[in-house]
Amino acid sequence: MSAADYLESVRDRDWEQLESGTLRIAMISLGWWTREQAIPAVDDSKFCETTVLVSRSREKASAAADEIPTVDAALTYEEFTDGEATDEYDAVYVCTPNALHLPYAEAAAEHGKAVLCEKPMESTRERAERLVEATEEVPLMVAYRMQTDPQVRRMRELIAEGAIGEPVAVHGSMSQRMLETVSGDPDQWRLDPDLVGYGASVMDLGIYPLNTARFVLDADPVSATAQMRSADEAFRDVPDQHAAFTVRFDDGTQAACTASQHAAYTGHFRVVGTDGELALEPTFLGQSEQTLTLHRDGRRLAIGDDRRDVTKDEMTEEFDYFADRVLREAPIRPDGDHALVDMRALEAIYDAAETGSTVSV
């Protein structure tokens, strides 16, 4: 098969093996991401449905439940932790602030429920290690939605098959104006070190090119360098309003990445090899014109993306993949051990920025 034929024959779901079944999901936290992306994604999914909503306020959970016909219970965080309505769900989606992932993943595991935990897995490496230990007896998946994006999966296959020769370098970036696109509140949790962890931009955005590079290269980071700065008053408590970092991987490939919570809404990802280049752009932020392009031997082969809401579709893929694995009792990737590598890398990146030196992962 030619590269052009390969790109045109992209399979949306190379992982799907489940023929039927339903995984009932409890949504932990009803912030904007859960309401605007996760719940609609589950509604569009093949193997999942939302049956329980959990929020700080019973009123907020009940009001949201009134709009979702499949919901059987609306709970406070305390009621969830205490084990109410455990017969109404099979798995949980944890989308709280980073430093609150651990207690709700731990409670879900105590109730014998599978866990889909948002990234980064926790606020610090130490807390992430505790989360992995707490969920040893239940399925745990960390929500790297790019790993189930069909175009990213094709990048991984093409690289493995030598389409660009030996990988040499990765370039990735992700930026947004957080105070305009996420929340205008300067006191939000993403700017609170006690809740977000090491910082604002690399923890929330830089993790995308970092983990996507790991996935498509099938490689792990071994060292990092970084530079960061925070100029505006809203970012006074975090070191990385803007950040640039480099990562060396165990296959010899080097990545150069940037991330900013106060820059234009844009993202790109490309891998340069000895014989060619693969580029996916715009990426990470759900722009519908996302295109995968292979450049080699003076030729350009591209496949566009006609999805209207790329982010929601990526989330639907993620939830259905999770359900496929949980219902079939099959191994899940990316799991907690995979995510711990990212937590070690994030710690190294922030240490490198602080010390001005190269830090081992």
Features:
about 350 residues, alpha/beta, 9-stranded mixed β-sheet, 6-stranded parallel β-sheet, about 35% helix, globular
Topology:
Blueprint: H1 3-8, E1 23-28, H2 32-44, E2 48-55, H3 58-65, E3 73-76, H4 77-82, E4 91-94, H5 101-110, E5 114-117, H6 125-134, E6 140-142, H7 150-160, E7 167-177, H8 178-181, H9 193-196, H10 201-217, E8 221-229, E9 242-249, E10 254-260, E11 262-273, E12 276-281, E13 291-296, E14 299-303, H11 310-328, H12 336-355, E15 359-360
Parallel strand pairs: 1-2, 1-4, 2-3, 4-5, 5-6, 7-10
Antiparallel strand pairs: 7-11, 8-9, 8-15, 9-10, 11-12, 12-13, 13-14
Helix pairs in contact: 2-11, 5-6, 6-12, 7-10, 10-12
What does this structure look like?
The chain is an alpha/beta fold and 361 residues long. It is built from twelve helices and 15 strands. It has a nine-stranded mixed β-sheet. A six-stranded parallel β-sheet has the order 3-2-1-4-5-6, with helices on both faces. Helix 3 links the parallel strand 2 and strand 3. Helix 10 packs across helix 12. It starts with a helix and ends with a strand. The relative contact order is 0.16.
Q: Stretches where pLDDT falls below 50 for ≥5 residues?
A: none
Tally of individual helices: 12
Largest beta-sheet characterization: 9 strands, mixed
Query: Could you say which structural class the secondary elements and strand pairing correspond to?
Result: alpha/beta
Order of helices and strands: HEHEHEHEHEHEHEHHHEEEEEEEHHE
Bin the strand percentage: 25-35%
Percent in helix: 25-40%
User: Distance N terminus to C terminus?
Assistant: 39 Å
Mean pLDDT: 94
Secondary structure tally: strands? 15
What is the spatial order of strands in the main beta sheet? 14-13-12-11-7-10-9-8-15
Q: Kindly provide the radius of gyration, computed on alpha-carbon positions and rounded to a whole number of angstroms.
A: 20 Å
Gross morphology is globular
